[in-house]
Specification:
This protein is an alpha+beta fold. Among the domains are: 120 residues, no CATH class; 134 residues, Heat Shock Protein 90. It has eight helices and eleven strands. It has a five-stranded mixed beta sheet with strand order 6-8-9-11-10. A four-stranded antiparallel beta sheet has the order 2-1-4-3, covered by helices on one side. A two-stranded antiparallel ribbon has the order 5-7. Strand 8 and strand 9 form a beta hairpin. Helix 5 runs parallel beside helix 6. 19% of the residues are buried.
């Protein structure tokens, strides 16, 4: 910004100089020419006065004494009363400046200058004018640089502070008051916004931590009960209790990972996982619900190892399966192809519904609440992406980064 301000000011100064240069040059040229003509007229009058005392017996000036009366390079011509040239001195000048004075005995004295002095004087004046113009442009550039520094420095400091605030660092100090009202208004607004955001995030994090603690406490109690049931004498009870206990453990791990994400983490618990195994586990969790709805839930294909947070991937699968069960139709298929997981059903969604699918529940136009927005955020936190690739049949694709081979 500082460079653009200096360049713009210099361009404006140059344009102003160019606009003013033409009339100034014409005025200087005309004033210098008028001064030269006045000087020639005065010299011609002085020569006429001198020649009046040097006239010969013929009543005409003595030609032998004329040459010393004019400057070098100028021409003097003396004409009689009839206009005939009686004498002249100096080089013949065709295009020059003329001055005529009345001489003795009705003679005319014409003084002609070649304008050499005029050109020299104009050259010196134009050089001086150019130096002044260059000095003016340089001064404008210096003033623009000073003003630009005073203007842009607080803006750059505000931008740096805003970037740190955007990254969640609310300890970032704002720059001091600049004295420029508009910039200081922005600073005050940014300070108020940062304060409100800090309070809001602190409140949300506190609530998230408290809610997670309470959920973890409840899950711990459920796990203890399930552990007791896992020792039951009935084999079927033990199997169901073990299965429920595994789900409880996964839910506890998912809560920890979601809490880390809410605190600003981005998949910090990513490990090398087999996508196919996670899909089969969660298919088993949802199979009974799909059977009660008299709908099929199929899983097939093979996958490679990916880098992901197991809880995030499981949560995404749960959200997609819940979405298919609630809003879809027919059988649901989970297909695994290398590093992608594809979930599709036999339903159809409209184009308008698809546009707001990932907006979240805070948006009044969101058709499916918070779940799909959370699923996309979880995928992005793991370095992947979640996309709706087809509206009929409804098909979602989760893509995750492939794990590096050791």
């Amino acid at each position: 910004m500082r460079g653009r301000l200096v360049r713009s000011t210099v361009m404006v100064a140059i344009l102003v100089m160019l606009v003013l240069a033409t009339p100034v040059v014409l005025l200087i040229k005309r004033a210098t020419e008028d001064e030269l003509r006045s000087s020639l007229a005065a010299q011609a009058s002085a020569i006429s006065t001198t020649l009046s005392s040097l006239t010969g017996e013929s009543g005409l000036p003595d030609p032998s004494r004329i040459s010393g009366m004019v400057p070098d390079g100028d021409q003097i011509v003396i004409r009689d009363a009839t206009g005939k040239i009686t004498s002249s001195a100096g080089p013949i000048i065709k295009d020059g400046f003329h001055a005529v004075a009345e001489g003795p005995n009705k003679t005319q004295i014409e003084l002609v200058s070649s304008g050499r002095d005029l050109r020299q004087r104009l050259t010196r004046q134009f050089i001086l004018l150019g130096v002044l113009a260059a000095g003016g442009v340089l001064l404008a550039a210096v003033l623009a640089a000073i003003f630009g520094a005073r203007l842009t420095r607080p803006l750059e400091q505000l931008a740096a502070s805003a970037a740190r605030l955007g990254a969640g660092d609310f300890s970032a100090a704002l720059p001091p008051v600049s004295g420029i009202r508009e910039i200081d208004d922005i600073r005050a607004t940014l300070a108020m916004s940062a304060n409100r955001l800090d309070k809001t995030l602190s409140s949300e994090r506190s609530f998230t931590g408290d809610a997670t603690h309470q959920l973890r406490t409840g899950l711990t109690g459920i796990a203890l009960q399930l552990q007791l049931l896992a020792t039951h004498e009935d084999e079927a009870v033990r199997v169901d209790a073990s299965h429920a206990l595994a789900q409880t453990d996964r839910l506890t791990a998912t809560l920890d990972e979601l809490l880390d994400l809410a605190r600003g983490g981005r998949g910090s618990q990513r490990i090398t996982v087999q996508l196919h195994e996670i899909a089969l586990e969660h298919r088993g969790d949802w199979l009974n619900r799909f059977q009660l709805a008299r709908r099929g839930l199929l899983c097939h294909g093979a996958s490679v190892k990916v880098m992901a947070t197991p809880g995030f991937v499981g949560q995404i699968i749960d959200i997609l399966l819940d979405n298919a069960l609630r809003h879809g139709r027919g059988d649901v298929r989970i297909e695994l192809r290398e590093r992608t997981l594809r979930i599709s059903d036999e339903g159809t969604i409209t184009e308008r519904t698809a546009e707001g699918l990932f907006r979240g529940s805070d948006d009044p136009a969101a058709p499916h609440g918070r779940g799909l927005a959370l699923a996309r955020r979880l995928a992005q936190a793991d370095g992947g992406r979640l996309e709706l690739v087809a509206r009929s049949p409804t098909t979602f694709v989760l893509t995750l980064p492939v794990a590096h081979q050791a």
